[in-house]
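Researcher: I'm comparing several assemblies side by side, and this is the next one on my list. It has 598 residues spread over two chains. Same procedure as the others: predict the full complex and return the structure.
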Amino acid sequence: MIKIRKRLADTGFGALAIMVFVLSAFPVYWMVSTSFLPNNRIRGENLAFFPTPDVFTLDNYRAAIFSPRAPFPPAVLNSIGVTFLTLVIAVVVGFVAALALTRFQFKGRRTFIVMILVVQMIPGEAMIISLFRIIDGWQLLNTIIGLTLVYAAGVLPFTIWTLRGFVNGVPKELEEAAMIDGCSRAGAFWRVTFPLLAPGLVATGVFAFIQAWNEFVTALVIMQRPDAMTLPLWLRTFVQATQATNWGAVMAASVLIAIPAVIFFLIVQGRMTGGLVSGAVKG
Amino acid sequence: MSTTLLDPVAPPRQEIRQPRRPPYLPWFLLSAAMVILGVLTGFPLVRLVAMSFQEYERAQLMGQPAQWVGFDNYAAILTDVDGFWTVLARSFVLMVVLVVVTIVFGMLVALLMMRVGKGMRLLVSVGLLLAWAMPSLAATTVWGWLFDTQYGVVNNLLTTITGDRWFGYSWLLDPLSFFVIVGCIVVWGAVPFVAFTLYAGLTQIPEEVIEAAQLDGANAFQRFRLIQLPYVRSIVTVLVVLSMIWDLKLFTQVFVLQDIGGDRELTSTIGVYIYQTGMAQGHYGVASAIGVVFVIVMLAIAYPYVRRTLREEEL
């Protein structure tokens, strides 16, 4: 009797698990599926739930890339430029700052760390007005430099904080051992500590990449000219309600934007939850 | 940079002297970060506060000098019941609902992952990761398409299931169902982080504790309430604060759904309202005042989190 009940419960929870999977995966699946279907098969009674070979088409991608509303090539180039520069600045500047905060004892260290934590909590949405005026004053509206600077400042607190954790994780004794063996201080650092930090640098870089690639609000304010748009702004032009929405093209455009973000996200996802949990459970 | 790290004198073998380092070296290393944060976070913050005390409209954008008007902008927003207060109340109610739903669903999924076997757990994880990885803008367009008035798959399925004609039913026009869809997008995207974090916390509870409770006759709900929940309480607190911050900042989802077909007047949250007031209508001074209030509210919410982090890091 108990055995039967347990098996029933197992089946029930299994069904629930499948439901959770379907609910979380379906929108992603639907995006990809729609993007490969011709316009007459994504709606009405003729709805196709899977892009079988006989209806499979790349027309939506053609429509998205050659959209007359907003040109695709400059949007890609702008996004790649801004993302790449943000990533480099965030990792290099963040790493150097993290070194100062972990390997040195100095007055003002604690103040700086508190400041980093507080700055992280200031919502970018509140600052768009003054940022717009400042960037405009510097003649940097619609430029990659202008947007990159804002993004770099946006991700730096988090990168410094994260890298600080990673550097702290490499014991000083390792460096000291290398120095006993005759390494200079700098040599010990570059040969021993730095290689151990590589995963941390990758994780931070990917975080900066995803932030810059997906960011919407600031870009909306700073990159107003069509040729200055980044990819998220480009995608938005497809759904602005001036005319009937071509959903096939919207989904194709969404896929194009999502692919790099999803790939890079999967690279680092293991690290995202770890930090919060370690040491947080009583026991 | 590597040269500045070098010792002036190489230490003799077998003996490590703490090398004398110039006291300005850490500040030199911090300088780049300080310049960037000072110029692009500090200065804009000061400018925001300054603008909130100025009359700053389109004319000032064209070069007319801005007049100092004291607290006029604040008086304007604080007496604006239909505008500012409504938006603030709307944002808060939305935030509370989203946080509660996210945490509850996240906890349920985490418990489900504890209960099912390895294969099923992998399946759930794959689904959650897909949802988590989606950029919020792409997620918004996808959900907008699912709930599309004419051709959305939701209306299609509802028509098939109920037999009524749902084609042409607009989900975005009515503010309430508009926020239901906003809720779907946000919860769908936020549950994975909450579920994975809680799951990681739950797996760290020693098995003997649960077994002992089981032997003492505690049922599943009692085990959850009396053992599992207290163990992960501190994680839940952090997740609640982080969710509050993220959900109050909501911008992309609301803004783009309005593009697709919502009523901007009736659905704006605080971030969108700042954009509308400032960038769209040109009331930069008033929008700055709202921005300052927004910053203060956010810092107040984040305060316990910051304190907790500092205590934990023993700073």
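Model: For your comparison table: Chain A touches chain B through 109 residues (CB under 8 Å).
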